[in-house]
Give the backbone structure.
Amino acid sequence: SAVISQKPSRDICQRGTSLTIQCQVDSQVTMMFWYRQQPGQSLTLIATANQGSEATYESGFVIDKFPISRPNLTFSTLTVSNMSPEDSSIYLCSVEPDPTDTQYFGPGTRLTVL
Amino acid sequence: QKEVEQNSGPLSVPEGAIASLNCTYSDRGSQSFFWYRQYSGKSPELIMSIYSNGDKEDGRFTAQLNKASQYVSLLIRDSQPSDSATYLCAVKSGSARQLTFGSGTQLTVLP
């Protein structure tokens, strides 16, 4: 498995602002993922972040709204840009340690947009 | 569109009973199957993975896979109140690394 931390754990933001969420893992991993979990819903994949390449976004998610950085094998950031109340969700990063095909999740960031 | 379907519940069982959670998936190319448990306000934690047809047991948990029927289930024996949570079925297809999640089944174990 892997030990994953996220910052911040929660935040309350104003409409129109941006928030950057950090994800740190205790070992080097190739595959990192960002998910969104809206209230009462299941997890939806936003994008896959591989070190050294551009993030791959799922349908319905765009880089301008959710820019991602992956500067090294232990760290990634997700920015939620120009926020609206519809962006209020839990944002989760996950990693897939090599050579497994199992994903482990960070504790999540609970975002409320007013 | 790859889909993973779960009964949303809620499912209530008495303490000590067997809880049965079911999941179907649409993509016949699916290769890897996972059950996660998510307590309220927490992130998902892995319970089990299964890759081959049949049963896989881990303590009180048994995962069952039937690829012909595109069906995966999780049995929890001797259910405890601490098992009360939402259980998420997740599927990985072919060479893809992404997980597709079901909507989750909320389980309540009554003391």
The interface with chain B takes residues 1, 31, 33, 41-45, 48, 58, 90, 92, 96, 101-108 of chain A (CB under 8 Å). Chain A has a mean pLDDT of 95. Residues 17 and 110 of chain A are 16 Å apart (CA to CA). The two ends of chain A are 36 Å apart (CA to CA).
